[in-house]
Specification:
Blueprint lengths: L9 H11 L8 H14 L3 E7 L3 E8 L7 E3 L5 H4 L6 E3 L12 H4 L6 E8 L5 E9 L7 H25 L9 H18 L3 E8 L2 H8 L1 H18 L5 E6 L2 E7 L3 H21 L8 E7 L7 H12 L12
Antiparallel strand pairs: 1-2, 1-6, 2-3, 4-5, 5-6, 7-9, 7-10, 8-9
Helix pairs in contact: 2-5, 7-8, 8-9
């Protein structure tokens, strides 16, 4: 298989996909229902919804492939090519297309001969993957059938938007409590299986009430948005960042012990100070934080948050300068 080009916006696309919370989650009936229906309507043996991660293809929903194919290398997949275009990728016969003659799904069982993938996008426009049909025989689709597949892709995008609204904070765009608890519970479970460290950070915008009292709610909202931008710039895309309540934020550091989380928080302190050095006097941020590592004493997500929260109030506030 020939080397596939990387989309020009790959960094932003991956950040958007990881932030969506769609990767590495269990089966979802809303998407399984669509692949079952598409398989029946188009009379094909395989229908699937794929998400294209950095190095792998994750099948969010699939009807017709066994569990072994739920995750596969990105560079040997059809959908990697679909990312490079806005229109559907159609391969009438894989044996006639040198891009796909040797990929596992073609060279090995189930020996795919036909593929069509319709690109699907996240609410911010980032391309997530594709809604796909496959057959073990060469075939052609009519323009009406291709249009119908586009309707399926549009329904998937509507579902993405609904999930985003249900799990993300409207003001900051970060995960909301519902979204965070759902994804964090899954992350902690995976962390236990792999024996990895995981640490939670609790962050408070200390001067939020002072900003609101002195300059109004809009100024308070702007301060929360400013802090959100600082947080996003300070932490990794693989970490789960959320707004829990009003002026409180949490971040779940993947594969990181408490020492590593402290280092990350010290970097956050530097970024807050950099922001404050550029901001007007009434635009500065005052931030406190605490961290707690997942262990026997902090075995649940609720206990992790409680411990990190308690430590935040005993931590030295960050971002406060003399006279503020």
């Amino acid at each position: 298989m020939k080397t596939v080009k990387t989309p020009p916006n790959e960094t932003e696309r991956l950040a958007s996909l990881k932030a969506s919370g769609l990767l590495d989650t269990g089966p979802a009936e809303r998407f399984d229902r669509l692949t079952r229906l598409a398989k029946h309507l188009f009379d094909v043996p395989v229908a699937l919804l794929s998400l294209v991660d950095e190095n792998r293809l994750w099948l969010k929903a699939c009807d017709g492939l066994d569990a072994a194919h739920r995750e596969m290398p990105r560079d040997t997949s059809f959908c990697t090519h679909t990312l490079l275009q806005d229109s559907p990728l159609i391969v009438p016969d894989t044996h006639d297309d040198t891009r796909f003659q040797t990929i596992p799904l073609v060279a090995n069982a189930p020996h795919i001969r036909f593929y069509i993938g319709y690109p699907v996008r996240l609410p911010d426009g980032g391309q997530a993957g594709a809604f796909c049909l496959m057959d073990t025989e060469p075939r052609e689709l009519t323009p009406q059938q291709i249009s119908l597949l586009g309707d399926f892709a549009a329904i998937v995008e509507d579902e993405f938007a609904l999930l985003n609204a249900a799990t993300h904070d409207e003001l900051t765009g970060l995960l909301n409590p519902r979204g965070f608890h759902s994804l964090a519970a899954y992350a902690l479970s995976a962390h236990r299986r792999r024996g990895e460290f995981m640490t939670l950070g609790f962050i408070t915008l200390d001067n939020y009430q002072d900003i609101v009292a002195g300059a109004g709610q809009e100024a308070g909202d702007n301060a929360l948005r400013d802090l959100t931008r600082v947080l996003k710039g300070a932490f990794r895309d693989s970490d789960l960042l959320a707004r829990l309540d009003h002026n409180q934020f949490v971040i779940l550091f993947a594969d990181t012990d408490e020492k590593g989380a402290w280092i990350a928080m010290q970097y956050l302190a530097e970024r807050v100070e950099e922001f404050n050095s550029r901001a007007r006097r009434d635009g500065s941020l005052a931030v406190s934080w605490g961290v707690a590592q997942h262990d026997e004493a902090n075995g649940s997500l609720e206990q992790l948050i409680k411990t990190a929260d308690k430590r935040a109030y005993s931590a030295k506030p960050l971002g406060k300068r003399a006279g503020r």
